[in-house]
């Protein structure tokens, strides 16, 4: 029985120059909501018993802070602690239902630039029942971009929009992180998952960057899956995967599925890594259904704390705790949600589970392979830049998409109206509805809503459109009584088209 935990580094890779400081490392701790205080107390108890050299500063986050009037869920002064310690051990929080509250998790990740969300998902068979006993993979999820930019608007009576933002530096950072992670953790393969066949520009960029960066890691195999079949394969044959790198939304969904497949969402920890700060948390939420009962599984937060200890260069303490945790599982000791006929005695409560781990500190698992973490190489040892800003491209405007709100109108009627309002510089080229071309030569079967994208193109191929041309066009259109929602400039970058065609164009 082998557990090749994702953060495991073989002992022969231990850097002999790593020095162990006996000073306590300041960390920021938040107890969170729901089961948060229970699993944090259990986790800190294990850390203390194992001899972790940490000085914890507590901050308040979550429901109480939201309800006290901070709509971000964190008081302004708490940022000072995070910026000072640069290490955050965080219990889950409850996001109040209803409007007006933004997710604090997303706020923290984005404000502190925590671009990589690293989620190891490992099976503990035969001690924890799972259909996938050979699962041992790490999901490296992009953590700041994609639909999580949170830029949403209601544009018409019928249409709501969420912008999907993918940047080249963002792709380079996460893809390079995934390859560096695979290399430094003795992994063999990096799999990229995107929907680049549909979102050719955004997901297409992610894949393009993956294809560029993989060339620098010839010793690692690499592959790409379209996310739908990739997710299906992950759910049925997880043993095929090693390190998976993927944009934010796909990674969020995949990692919960993968964690649940190992037996319980309560088992997985995660690291949120930035260039300056790192945050460690369980992947599950505040579990209000079992809060206050003292029965929650602290393993997710405990394993997140193990990742934190490696990060702050206390690898030997991390190994001691992780081995004791594995031994606890081998001894058949579980919290209620994992307890079964194969377990030993009664289900343990949260603190009893922590105490069972504490009793086993210093012992090694006999079925699972014992873990020996290595302190990470110091930052100065890393020569590879996470991203390289490219020289500015030659950008030329060739047209404009004008988005229009109009109920109860046909494409032909709208086209007739806009054609008469167009300026000599810009010609109406097409109209789409929800991205599908409906003029010219649309299909009567196409369902239309009240939101139209009207593409105006320079009247000749050579003409370079100016902002003044667009302002003149908008003046005429709006004076003609058309309700303009917004515009998107159509540009080329070094001659390459920077916009997608309409569906059916
Ligand atoms: P959840 O993860 O809290 O709970 C899902 C299910 O898993 C529940 O049945 C719960 O009892 C169980 N579960 C979760 N953790 C467990 C543990 N450690 N031990 C035993 N069982 C466990 O998801 P949810 O119910 O969708 O969300 C509850 C709240 O948590 C929401 O307000 C949500 O916004 C928030 N949330 C926070 C975070 C975070 O802070 N990182 C992450 C996800 C959800």
Bound molecules: nicotinamide-adenine-dinucleotide
CATH architecture annotation of the largest domain: 3-Layer(aba) Sandwich
Q: How far is the N terminus from the C terminus?
A: 56 Å
Number of strands: 18
**Which spans have pLDDT < 50 for at least 5 consecutive residues?**
1-19
CATH class of the largest domain: Alpha Beta
Q: What's the overall geometry? A: elongated
Helix count, per DSSP?
13
At the fold tier of CATH, the topology name of the largest domain is Isopropylmalate Dehydrogenase
Query: How many domains is the backbone divided into?
Result: 3
CATH superfamily of the largest domain, by name, is Isopropylmalate Dehydrogenase
Description:
The chain is of the alpha/beta class and 505 residues long. Helices cover 30% and strands 21% of the residues. The protein has helices at 36-50, 63-67, 78-85, 104-111, 168-184, 202-214, 227-236, 248-261, 299-311, 315-330, 350-359, 411-421, 467-479, and strands at residues 25-30, 54-58, 87-90, 116-122, 136-142, 152-154, 160-162, 189-194, 221-226, 243-246, 269-273, 278-282, 395-405, 426-433, 436-439, 451-458, 483-493, 496-497. The radius of gyration is 26 Å and the shape is elongated. The model is unreliable at 1-19 (pLDDT under 50). Bound molecules: nicotinamide-adenine-dinucleotide. The site of nicotinamide-adenine-dinucleotide has 20 residues, from loops.
Brief digest:
The protein has helices at 36-50, 63-67, 78-85, 104-111, 168-184, 202-214, 227-236, 248-261, 299-311, 315-330, 350-359, 411-421, 467-479; strands at 25-30, 54-58, 87-90, 116-122, 136-142, 152-154, 160-162, 189-194, 221-226, 243-246, 269-273, 278-282, 395-405, 426-433, 436-439, 451-458, 483-493, 496-497. The protein has 505 residues and is of the alpha/beta class.
């Amino acid at each position: 029985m082998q557990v090749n935990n994702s953060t495991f580094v073989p002992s022969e890779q231990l850097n002999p120059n790593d020095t162990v400081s006996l000073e306590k490392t300041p960390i920021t701790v938040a107890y969170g909501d729901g089961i948060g205080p229970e699993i944090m107390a259990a986790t800190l108890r294990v850390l203390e018993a194992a001899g972790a050299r940490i000085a914890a500063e507590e901050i308040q986050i979550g429901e109480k802070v939201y309800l006290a009037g901070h709509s971000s869920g964190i008081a302004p002064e708490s940022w000072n602690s995070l910026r000072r310690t640069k290490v955050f051990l965080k219990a889950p929080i409850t996001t109040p239902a209803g409007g007006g509250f933004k997710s604090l998790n997303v706020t923290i990740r984005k404000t502190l630039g925590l671009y990589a969300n690293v989620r190891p998902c490992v099976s503990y068979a035969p001690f924890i029942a799972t259909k996938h006993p050979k699962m041992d993979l790490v999901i490296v999820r992009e953590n700041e971009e994609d639909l999580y930019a949170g830029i949403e608007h209601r544009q018409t009576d019928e249409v709501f929009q969420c912008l999907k933002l993918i940047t080249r530096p963002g792709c380079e950072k996460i893809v390079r992180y995934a390859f560096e992670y695979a290399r430094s953790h003795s992994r063999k393969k990096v799999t990229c998952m995107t929907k680049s066949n549909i979102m050719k520009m955004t997901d297409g960029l992610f894949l393009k960057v993956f294809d560029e960066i993989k060339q620098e890691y010839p010793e690692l195999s690499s592959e790409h899956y379209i996310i739908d079949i990739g997710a299906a394969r992950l759910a049925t044959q997880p043993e095929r995967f090693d390190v998976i790198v993927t944009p934010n939304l796909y990674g969020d969904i995949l990692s919960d599925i993968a964690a649940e497949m190992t037996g319980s969402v309560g088992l997985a920890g995660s690291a949120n890594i930035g260039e300056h700060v790192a945050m460690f948390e369980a992947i599950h939420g505040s579990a209000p259904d079992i809060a206050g009962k003292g029965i929650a599984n602290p393993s997710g937060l405990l394993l997140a704390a193990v990742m934190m200890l490696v990060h702050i260069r206390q690898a030997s303490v991390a190994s001691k705790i992780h081995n004791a945790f594995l031994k606890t599982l081998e001894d058949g000791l579980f919290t209620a949600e994992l307890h079964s006929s194969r377990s030993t005695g009664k289900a343990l409560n949260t603190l009893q589970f922590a105490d069972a781990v504490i009793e086993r500190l210093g012992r090694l698992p006999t079925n699972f392979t014992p873990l020996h973490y290595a302190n990470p190489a110091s930052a100065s040892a890393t020569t590879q830049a996470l991203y390289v800003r490219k020289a500015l491209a030659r950008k030329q405007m060739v047209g404009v998409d004008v988005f229009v709100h109009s109920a109860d109108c046909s494409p032909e009627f709208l086209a007739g109206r806009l054609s008469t309002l167009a300026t000599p510089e810009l010609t109406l080229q097409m109209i789409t509805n929800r991205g599908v071309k409906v003029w010219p030569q649309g299909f009567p079967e196409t369902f239309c809503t009240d939101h139209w994208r009207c593409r105006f193109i320079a009247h000749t191929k050579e003409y370079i459109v100016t902002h003044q041309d667009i302002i003149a066009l908008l003046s005429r259109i709006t004076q003609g009584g058309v309700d303009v929602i917004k515009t998107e400039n159509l540009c080329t970058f070094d001659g390459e088209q920077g916009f997608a065609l309409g569906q059916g164009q």
